[in-house]
Amino acid sequence: MRVSDDVLKCVFFLAVKATTAGTESFRLVGTGFFVGVPSERFPQEAQWTYMATAKHVIEAAKRYGSSIYVRLNTNQGGYEMLEVHGEWTYHENEGVDLALGGWQPDLKKYDCRVIPFEMFALEKAIESESIGVGDEIVMVGLFSQHYGTKKNYPIVRSGAIAATPGEPLRDDHSGVEYQAYLAEVRSIGGLSGSPVFVALTQLMLPSGISRKREKFVYLLGVVRGHWDIKKVEAAVDFAEDDLGQVNMGIAIVTPVQYLAEMLMYDVFLKPRRNYDSEVAKTRESKPPSVQ
User: Fold this and answer.
1) pLDDT attached to residue 3
2) What CATH number does residue 267 fall under?
């Protein structure tokens, strides 16, 4: 499936400063992306932009004890490392692996795209579009072995939804349960924090009649990680060496509905509503124009 170049521009790389053998350099730690939320009262005039990624990416970065940076492509063809200001907000449910930041650079200076809120695959869209098992997905993000020396080179990994959220999964480290999509992809690992898009083709109904979907693509969720075969007790009797060579190819994806919930937290919602109120007051105080 051909992926638009704009899809590649929706992500950035996250990094920290690390010292190796006395030399300080940037170390890439994961992928993030920008999401946009329109003003409630003036949706055609104002949009608020936030940074999204996986919580465990931010927590891992903080263990270095330094600031977190974003690596963004510039309009001139190179990249810049920008220090992230402000705090990251996590979901109130400990099992949800998401982080949201309110800081943003001047995006006009950079070759990037913002994923709009109307692109989220929320409950209404999932039902009306019949999004489910077998639908094609693409993940866009960092490949640690080839990330680009002069600019970001995100890669695309494709596959299909293997299972929808239902019976909870359990985190091996914390023991906390969580909901997630399981996605079969051609390769795994290295994409933590990456956006996952579901690409909708025609839907074949049991009657044999096909039905077109309303949109071609939705944001399905965020990469949490991949299924580690070493942690699974298989029912099949593999030899130890053979077991290590089996590629399960299953990625764990946090549903975008949790990201939508976070965007309504007071820390993000209040500034948006305060802005709307100030704009409304300004317009109400202006005298009517004379014709």
Assistant:
1) 76
2) 2.40.10.10
